[in-house]
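Weekend entry, working from home. Most of the wet-lab plans are on hold until the incubator is repaired, so I used the time to fold the two sequences that have been sitting in the queue since the last round of cloning. Logging both here for the record. First:
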Amino acid sequence: MRRTPDPGTLAGTSVAGASVAGADAAVLIVGGGPVGLTARALLERWGVRTLLVEKHGELSPLPRSRLVNVRSMEIFRGLGTAAAITANAFAPEYGRVRFRDTLRDRDFASAAMIGVNAPMRESPMSGVVTSQDRLEPVLLAAAHGPVRFGAELVGLVEEADAVVALLADRRSGERTSVRVCYVLAADGANSTVRHLLGIGTTGPGALGKVTTVVFDADLGRWCAGQPAGVYFTALGSFMPLYPEGGWAWFGPTPEDAEGTDWADLVRHALGPGDGVRPEVRRVEHWGMNAFVAERLRHGRILLAGDAAHAVPIIGGLGMNAGLADVHNLCWKLAGVLQGWAGPGLLDTYEAERRPVAHLTLRQAVTNARLLRDAQSRRREQLRAGGAAPDQVELPWTEQYFAQLGLVLGVAYRSAAVLTGDHTPPEPSDPSTDYVPTAEPGHRMPHLWLTHDHSTLDASGEWFTLLTPDPATWAPHTTAPPPVRIEPLPREHTAVCGVGPRGALLVRPDGHIAAHWPAGPRTPDTLTEALTALTALTGSHDGRRP
């Protein structure tokens, strides 16, 4: 495990001899996957200038990440992209996983993806099953800031008030430098930025090599009447790629990968039968990793997504955790850059998201174990001989790996949450059900303020105060940070734990920053809270003004 150097040191290749352009952007985003593209859109909403660089020459042509969970769809609802993402996705009935001996066989087990297969009262949105190559173009179109494909980051130098990044054009070899205020690294599990900075990782590390085979074949006779987002079999897993067609198989990479007949491998995995000949379109080899970075911040450089934490794919947690990272981070970057927050606010990013990364990794490892358990039970049935029952009792509930407590129930603990006399508990068991709560640190519960306007919609590029008595809470100053006051209908006061003059202060990322059950303690209660939350007064102990 490598030691992490102190901020301010040189990382990577020297920038000597490269022409440095001043103030190219406020934030350099490294990585053009879903996490980097979402960060670009979020920062643009705040009016922050960005430059995104992606070492590949185009968006991903491969399906890769498949599940956009309900919390991510809430984020995309705020960005105005949810409708376009849903339009490209599968119908809700594909929000299910099925277990079979081969794809041609009947299910021996099945489980719904709760929050995907049907609407849920806890959110105005549902998650969707889609493919990354359908998601990324929507996210790219959601912002207008410059994007440089084929530009690889090869060096970083931190200065007192900026970061100088060295970029290499992968086609021409030309090197240029850009100077920015901050770098947001979303460049994947094999992050160049993380390696340049010497940031170590904790966790199991590399779990094995996996191959994805994208192919065309008519598999409707075995799947059309029993749709699913994933079919797990003993010979690998199958995924429908797009509503109009296309499939992918993924499984352990064979020892002789170069000599493998991929069409024959997929045909064998389909099972004996009707001589289907898959038409292979693409083959991708990749590594499955499991780790959390030792640090998420190195001075003016911040890690997000797989660069910060890589988790096994079972349960679809990885990309969604990265989206939550940048949803947490971007409003803080905007506040510091625009002067309504102190630099100390950025310390709360690691304090809030790194514990969630560990919980996510633990849940993903648990998901993989549960999957193995289900398949092991089936093998035991078949070894027993005779007429094996059609169904295997699953080692979890009918809620797909029961992870809504982690998806919606995470509680943040940091200086950006004023807890008063109540300390929000971290979800000790993220596999439990989600229980809505209005305690500080938690995601604001979804409640309808009007017929089509949720409490979640009230969040945006501002802090939101929800109160049944707006007049009492009118701020005595117009100084930043930005804040809006929204009336809270009386029928929601009990759920929110507030009296006639009480209030909830909600952060731009939709998490509750402060809770006043009875009303303001002084005329300056709201102003003092905002000042403390945004680190404009230095450190504080998280107690409510």
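Second, folded right after the first finished:
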Amino acid sequence: MGLETRPWRRWFALAVLGLALVVLGGNLGPARASDPDSGAAPGLAARRNWWDLDRGRPCGRFWCSLVVSPHIPLGPGESRIRLAVAGGDGSTAQDTAARVEARSTAVATSLKDLARQLEASVQNAPEPPPTLGSGLWLNRQLKPRHPRTPTLAIGTKNNNPVIYLPADAGNRTPQVTLITLTEPDSLANGLDTEALAQRWKTILERTLSEALWGASFDRVFPWARPVVVALAVVLGGGGVLLCSRAVARRRDQAMELGRQLVALQQTRSDGRHAPSPGSEEATDKQQLKQVQRLERAQRHRNLAIKLIRMLRITVVVMAAILALFVVPGSRLLGLALLRLSASIPLIWGTMILLEGVLSWALARRLNQWADQAQLAEPNSRRPQLRLGTNLGVLKGTIGTGTTLLGLYLTLLAFGITPQILAGAGIVAVAVGFLARGLVEDLIGGVRILSADLYAVGDSIAANGHAGLVEGMNLLYTQLRGGGGELISLPNGAIRECENRSKDWARVNFEVDIAWRSDLARASALLQAVATELAADPEWNALILEEPQLLGVEQLDQSGVRLKLWIKTQPLKQWSVAREYRRRLKAALDAAGIEPGIPQRLSLQA
């Protein structure tokens, strides 16, 4: 019922996302760590990627950043270590964000190095590690403190509380300072420095205990994590396979419905099965109802296909998140993906539902209009053609609009703001590429639809090309030529259009007879053959009015030219004309009427 736009939208979406992520990855480099006691220099312009969980964010009059670690719980209701830095002193927001990000990165790096040392001690210990019950490995709340968990201390350095690991002379390990608390930290978290230091000390000890329990689990069950990752891959692959089969089945159903729609529009093209004049009105109404029913079923199938495709992507993402969570080294990436996975499906689910609601409202309004138009013109198939054309074009426009809106919201969810895109030049390039003639083509498409210049199924001639309108949208019109060629015309370039099948058509028949032939007899023969054709039950449904003999059209050296008109159903003028020529040839031969022959004049000297 129109041009196929879904592959175009899919590749356009992938191109925009890929280009945006490449630009974003090039502009947003990893943050640089600095000494947590001193903070970053004011001129540091660190930028974070969209997947960084410790990106600096405003929190009141401060800028804050979370300390992230594979073993720090970051779920809802969990206590977190949130560092804060005050702005001012002429520093920009970007510089302040870079300073707090550098603090959180330094703390996370120190904590990560300490956790690795403790995990290595568990792996290299001669005695077997402590074990837990099967249910306690996954329950963070019920899991006790690991026996090897070191006890952290709280001290003072430069009049600020510090949390540190005391030196161990027996193991020859130096003192390690993990966090230096500042006044902005206390104000941003709503606690005094002593209480905040105790809370953060508990969180750090719990984090080290989680790292030790993970190392103990790997030593007791070295095969467990690879098995879970493989299971996630298998489950994800199975879910994708089931979703793909469901999509293929519904796509076949939608294609079959589309073929039924095309066949229904061509039903009356078969003259041997044409309805009788008394049943034309009922047949047109019935066909309109069938078109509406098939279009509604096709719309439901397409909506189901989009929802299943979104489910397929969700299955892949969930399997990837499970696999990433199992491995401590990739757990932070899994957590970032989990946070995004809560918004991305919501965005695209909303876009799919929005497209469905708008398409339903559009189809409902157009169906009401088609019913009224069919009542006003009971013997016309024009409402059917316009209904199919307008639904196809406008639904494609709605789909493209919701896709672009979904892409924009997705980029925002990834942290790609319009300022970043504009700074990278993407907006200028995209607008410069797409705006060439785009507005003109859109206006041309709206003009064609609103004026009903033609519809899908009409035979037209435009811009030196002629053919059957096979598909159209607001940008292009596709014609199928007589030789089977597919011609694409931009709507903005169509200035004049010749519609050969709107409402009705006509056989414009002309024939030359010899000068010596009986003109009255030849005229009567033309009229009699046309009248006989119109009375034939096999052809009368295609001929709308009594054939009209216009008479002598032209006199020249070829003979006398007679002209006759036969008004027919749309697109039936060619089949009626071919049948009329066949019958007239036999009648002229039987009557002995000779055709006109060009005369040559000879000059004698």
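Plan for Monday: verify the second prediction. The first strand starts at residue 57 and ends at 59.
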